[in-house]
Fold this sequence. Notes:
Blueprint: E1 2-4, H1 20-23, H2 26-38, H3 53-62, H4 67-77, H5 83-96, E2 98-102, E3 107-109
Antiparallel strand pairs: 1-2, 2-3
GO biological process, one term: negative regulation of mitotic nuclear division
Domain Nucleoside diphosphate kinase-like: 11-85
GO molecular function: ATP binding; metal ion binding; nucleoside diphosphate kinase activity
Amino acid sequence: MTSILRSPQALQLTLALIKPDAVAHPVILEAVHQQILSNKFLIVRMRELLWRKEDCQKFYQEHEDSVVSASREIAAFFPDFSEQRWYEEEEPQLRCGLVCYSPEVGIHYAPGTGGLGPA
C-alpha cells in the first residue's frame, strides 16, 4: 500500500504500547493495529517484547507525559534507533513524499529505504 503524505508540520514520534491482554487475542490485536492505521498514524518501528512484572512496574513508575520522557522510552524499547537520524533522514521523506506500508513488517517507510529505514 502506497500513499502520499504532505504535511507542512514536522512529524512527531509517539510510543504506543499494547498491553498483554490485547496481544493475547489475535483478533483484538489486529483491531488495535487497524485502528492505529485508520487514524493515519505512521508506524515506523515495531517490536514484540516480553517483560517481567518488575520491568513493567519500573516503566510505569517513571513514565511522565513529556517529549523527554518519550525520547527516553523510545530509546529503551528500540536501543538501535537514532531519534536524531530519524528526524534528519526519515521524517522529511515520510512527511513530504510517498509513504508505503509493509504488512509483512508492520511499518510505514519511504520508498527506497527497503521498509526498514535507517536505525
